Amino acid sequence: MNELGEKTGRILIVEDDVEIRKILRDYLGENGYEVHEAAEGRAASKLMREETYDLILMDLMLPYISGDHLIKELREYSNTPVIVLSAKSMMETRLEMLRVGADDYIIKPFDLSEVLVRIQVVLRRSGFTGNGGGHFGQSEQTEGEVLETPDGLLKLYVDEHRVVYVDTIDSGDGSAEKDSDAVQNDGATAEARNEERAVALTAKELQLLQLFLQYPKKTFTKANLYEAVWQDTYYYEDNTINVHMSNLRSKLKKQTGRDYIDTVWGIGYRLAEGEKTCG
To answer: In terms of Cα–Cα distance, which of 81, 31, 18, 24 is closest to 52?
Structure first.
């Protein structure tokens, strides 16, 4: 907790430079954060799987396993926010890290006060509660709420910050379809069973998906999405929405074989009305 008694969070610093790691550890500790450290990629990978953190500060150039690989690995099972700290200043690198799942990017050398503010902002936007893990928050949610697509197969468990795809596995003659209602009501598919497949999304991707599921008839402009999720003013040259929407759609398609979000040309995006399977 900080000096005001507010919960500040549990942070993992992944950085091979001893001096930078010490400076961050001391500064964040002074500001009330519980700080943990990893000096190389293998140790970081182990900690990320075995422990729960509210946020991770990630260097990119690490021994054994690189930072970008660690972010990709993390996104397979967790939506813990990640802020990249790197000397790599090229725009291509920064955009690529956002694509693979980073929530923010700070270029070295950095100002400690900026790092602190960026941490506070990312935690706030991710719905930080101080409990570690499960970072997702929207103002319009009901306890135990489950949101789903019109076909009922893609489900968002709001309180659990979890997205699953309900797949139907046919253990019989191969006639079963991916339709949970058909499985429950049609005796001919008695050999089939429902299986929930987790869809790993970042905190921002979860918030974007929640908007589409909450308002299935609405077409969102980029400004609508940015201001609702990032809670900031949208600037038209900003590529953030394009990157996050591309990531979200790609992940949904990879896990489900369906296009759940349509592009409305010249306007923005909306939830797809009907079933659209991919090749």
So the answer is: 81
Phi, psi of 60 (to 5 degrees): -95, -45
| Burial classification of residue 184, based on how many CB atoms lie within 10 Å of its CB (0-12 exposed, 13-18 middle, 19 or more buried) | exposed
Residue 109 confidence class, pLDDT cut points 50, 70, 90:
very high
Partners of 165 in beta bridges: 154, 197
Cβ atoms of 200 and 76 within 8 Å: the answer is yes
pLDDT digits (tens, 9 = 90+) for 219-233: 888 888 888 888 777
Say whether pLDDT at 234 is over 80: no
Instruction: State which H helix or E strand residue 189 sits in.
Output: none
Burial class of residue 214, CB neighbours in 10 A (0-12, 13-18, 19+)? middle
Predicted pLDDT of residue 192: 52
List, in sequence order, every beta strand (DSSP E) within 66-203.
Answer: 82-86, 104-107, 146-148, 154-157, 162-170, 192-198
Q: Is the dihedral of CA 273, 144, 56, 32 positive or negative?
A: positive
Residues with Cβ within 8 Å of 23's Cβ and at least 6 positions away in sequence, in order, are 112
Is residue 103 within 8 Å of residue 83, measured between CB atoms? yes
Other Cβ atoms closer than 10 A to 145: 15
**Residue bearing tokens 């091979």:** 16
- DSSP 8-class letter at 218: P
Q: What is the pTM of this model?
A: 0.53
How far is residue 34 from each of residues 11, 26, 112, 122, measured CA to CA in Å? 6, 10, 17, 16
For residue 272, the tally of other CB atoms under 10 A from its CB is 17
